[in-house]
Amino acid sequence: MSNFAKQVPKAVKEIRLHFCQTSGHSAGVRQFVQSSYPSIKSSNPDLKFLIREASEISPRAFVRFERGAESQTQLADLSESQVATELSRLVNSQTVGKPQ
User: Fold this and answer.
1) Number of Cβ within a 10 Å radius of residue 12
2) Tens of pLDDT along 38-67?
3) Strands 60-65 and 70-74
4) Which fold has domain 2-93?
5) The dihedral of CA 66, 67, 68, 74: what is its sign?
6) Which of 85-93's residues contact partners 24+ apart within 8 Å by CB, and which partners?
7) 13 within 8 A of 62, measured Cβ to Cβ
8) Are 28 and 79 in contact (CB under 8 A)?
9) What is the DSSP letter of 94?
10) Which residue ranges make up each domain of the chain?
11) Under 8 Å CB-to-CB from 91, ≥6 apart: which residues?
């Protein structure tokens, strides 16, 4: 997961994860946060990495770029490595200033 931490582009201003604290649909996201959050924050100290937990919600990731452009993706039933892959795809798919 440290590979993801080092590849976050400077155009990314915020990563926000929404997930449930107990549901099986969010298990991969919880594992990703536990294992990857420290390396993401140490490699990107100015990046806002927000974690939003709520009961019975579908796990999602939101990435905000320069100029307020934002993209999102579903993370339901994904493994920890699939969550990292989806986040990598999301942060690298955005053309700065042009919504997806």
Assistant:
1) 20
2) 999 999 999 999 999 999 999 999 999 988
3) antiparallel
4) Glutaredoxin (3.40.30)
5) negative
6) 86/61, 87/4, 87/15, 87/32, 87/61, 87/63, 88/4, 88/7, 90/61, 90/63, 91/7, 91/8, 91/9, 91/12, 91/15, 91/63, 92/7, 92/9
7) no
8) yes
9) P
10) 2-93
11) 7, 8, 9, 12, 15, 63
